[in-house]
């Protein structure tokens, strides 16, 4: 990797943690996923094991200029397109198996191009990054609440249905145990929100906080049961999600595919505004 980039990219160590935290703080909305992970790990240093996640860095005269989380997902932090290209060369030389590259659109697309990787399952080049910092003017959905441990079976079912619909394959294909632990962890952390149909006891709306930092929560997994679509649940449901999210951090964010115009209109009606553009490469 070092040779491939002619020394332009290095692996960060524990001593780089303060510098990485300062870089993450320059855009807390875009960087919330990495911020939450680094906060949990309490270090910018490499993870355990041969395939443990690492953070790559590019330095300038005044210290760390850009970084790139490199694990099962590749996530650039503060990278320009040129720096994204360097990270792509470095990641390609590492020959890692990854699930996705996501983050700032320009950097992500440059990383992908520079890796030389082929066979991407999907390239989502335009995903508005949206945020809200105050309660929605839409009335929150009555009955929306945090999931409880007893809700796990139906939350798992709804989450798997949403995953399959969104990505085109079952989440269990990548490891059923790992997926179930992810769902259970969101419930236990108080990061899973549901609304249940009082007649059928089925989950009719759900969403999760996929990443949480003191500054930002990022909403993921927004889903309305197909049989309940067209009933006006999405806007009030998201208003309830915002209400809960603002109890955890001053900003609630999400990103959405640009072709999902109905979802974008709903988010705008709730009060979200676009603050950036993401891209996601799925493998």
Summary of the model, kept short:
By secondary structure, this protein is an alpha+beta fold. It has 8 helices and 12 strands.
Layout of helices and strands, plus pairs?
Blueprint: E1 10-11, H1 17-24, H2 32-41, E2 54-60, E3 63-70, E4 73-77, H3 81-94, E5 100-104, H4 105-115, E6 122-132, E7 145-146, H5 152-167, H6 176-189, E8 192-196, E9 203-212, E10 216-224, H7 234-245, E11 251-255, H8 261-270, E12 273-282
Parallel strand pairs: 4-5, 10-11
Antiparallel strand pairs: 1-2, 2-3, 3-4, 5-12, 6-11, 6-12, 7-8, 8-9, 9-10
Helix pairs in contact: 3-4, 5-6, 7-8
Structure, described:
α3 links the parallel β4 and β5. The protein contains eight helices and twelve strands. It has 283 residues and is of the alpha+beta class. α5 crosses α6. It has a twelve-stranded mixed beta sheet with strand order 1-2-3-4-5-12-6-11-10-9-8-7, with helices on both faces. The chain has two domains: 109 residues; 145 residues, 3-Layer(aba) Sandwich (Aminopeptidase), CATH 3.40.630.30.
Our count of helices gives 8
According to CATH, the fold-level topology of the largest domain is Aminopeptidase
Largest sheet: 12 strands, mixed
How far apart are the first and last residues' alpha carbons, in Å?
22 Å
The CATH architecture of the largest domain can be named as: 3-Layer(aba) Sandwich
Q: For the largest sheet, list the strands in their spatial order.
A: 1-2-3-4-5-12-6-11-10-9-8-7
């Amino acid at each position: 990797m070092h040779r491939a980039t002619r020394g332009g990219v290095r692996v960060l160590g524990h001593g780089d943690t303060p510098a990485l935290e300062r870089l993450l703080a320059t855009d807390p909305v875009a960087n919330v996923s990495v911020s939450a992970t680094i906060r949990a790990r309490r270090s910018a240093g490499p993870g355990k094991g041969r395939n443990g996640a690492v953070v790559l860095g590019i330095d300038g005269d005044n210290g760390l200029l850009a970084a790139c989380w490199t694990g099962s997902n590749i996530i650039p932090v503060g990278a320009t397109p040129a720096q994204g290209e360097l990270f792509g060369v470095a990641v390609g030389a590492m020959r890692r198996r990854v699930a996705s590259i996501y983050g700032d659109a320009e950097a992500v697309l440059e990383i992908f191009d520079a890796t030389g990787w082929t066979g991407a399952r999907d390239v989502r080049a335009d995903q508005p990054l949206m945020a809200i910092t105050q309660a929605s003017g839409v009335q929150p959905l009555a009955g929306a609440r945090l999931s409880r441990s007893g809700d796990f079976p139906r939350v798992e079912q709804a989450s798997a249905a949403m995953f399959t619909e969104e990505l085109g394959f079952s989440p269990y294909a990548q490891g059923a145990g790992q997926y179930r632990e992810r769902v259970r962890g969101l419930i236990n952390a108080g990061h899973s929100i549901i609304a249940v149909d009082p007649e059928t006891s089925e989950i009719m709306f759900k969403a999760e906080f996929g990443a949480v930092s003191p500054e930002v929560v990022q909403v993921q997994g927004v889903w309305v049961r197909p049989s309940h679509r067209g009933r006006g649940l999405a806007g009030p449901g998201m208003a309830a999600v915002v209400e809960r999210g603002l109890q955890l951090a001053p900003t609630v964010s999400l990103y959405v595919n640009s072709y999902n115009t109905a979802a974008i209109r709903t988010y705008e009606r709730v009060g979200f505004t676009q603050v950036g553009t993401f891209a996601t490469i799925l493998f």
